[in-house]
Amino acid sequence: MLPFLQAPAAPRKKIVGNADSGTLEMPVLGGLTVGESAVIAELLANEQSSFVKGAQIAEVIAKEENITLLEAFQLIENSIGGKDLEESAEVMRVKHAEKIEDVARIYTASGQRNMEAGVTALIRCRLNLPDWSLEDTRGLHRRLFNDIYDVLSDEQEAENSEPTPPTEEELGKPPEANTSEKESTGKKSSGS
């Protein structure tokens, strides 16, 4: 056991799922554990980055249109995001619609793989099912999957929020005396 000045908060529990999907009690810790992050990384280790695949397609568009790689990538991102484009960019979007659709499919598939890896990691680690596989996760009821993914998202968001350091009182330390009010000169006060 670590010699914490302030022990971690006790895990809270969240019920996930419904009567149709079945319900589970998921521990909520306020962030992912090192083990959960490692499982996610392991499950995604063989996946090529969707960013790299998108950049490769952007490079083809850049060469064909004689524009910079950044401009081509921006065209793809804006097209996928449904943003209004200038007339010249709209012409390029229509001309390269199939390539841009490929990138959209790549991003969607990558997002799904990330979701599946995260849900699998939570089930393995928090429900103590180390043999739970991606295939097992893919067989979950959609409602249960989405609820567990919501726990994952909340935990990741909690990690990214600014923590408030504990107060001395919370740590069980007495507050330090305010030295500016009681400065000692070493002399006896004349009023005593």
Features:
7 helices, elongated, 192 residues, mainly alpha, two-stranded antiparallel sheet
Report on the architecture of this protein.
53% of the residues lie in helices and 7% in strands. The protein is mainly alpha-helical. It has one domain. The chain has a two-stranded antiparallel ribbon with strand order 1-2. α1 packs antiparallel against α5, α2 (50-65) crosses α3 and α5 crosses α7 (142-160). The longest helix is centred in the middle third of the chain and has 30 residues, at 97-126. The chain starts with 11 loop residues before the first strand and ends in a 32-residue tail after the last helix. The model is unreliable at 180-185 (pLDDT under 50).
Briefly characterize the structure.
The chain has helices at 34-44, 50-65, 69-80, 87-95, 97-126, 134-138, 142-160; strands at residues 12-18, 22-28. It is mainly α and 192 residues long. It has a two-stranded antiparallel sheet with strand order 1-2.
Dominant shape: elongated
Terminal CA distance reads 53 Å
Beta-strand proportion:
5-15%
The residue fraction in helices comes out at: 40-55%
Structural class: mainly alpha
Number of strands: 2
Unreliable residue stretches:
180-185
Count of separate structural domains = 1
Identify the strand order in the major beta sheet.
1-2
What is the string of SSEs from the N terminus onward? EEHHHHHHH
Mean pLDDT: 88
* Main sheet characteristics: 2 strands, antiparallel
Provide the gyration radius in Å: 27 Å
What's the tally of helices? 7
Write the layout of secondary structure elements.
Blueprint: E1 12-18, E2 22-28, H1 34-44, H2 50-65, H3 69-80, H4 87-95, H5 97-126, H6 134-138, H7 142-160
Helix pairs in contact: 1-5, 2-3, 2-5, 5-7
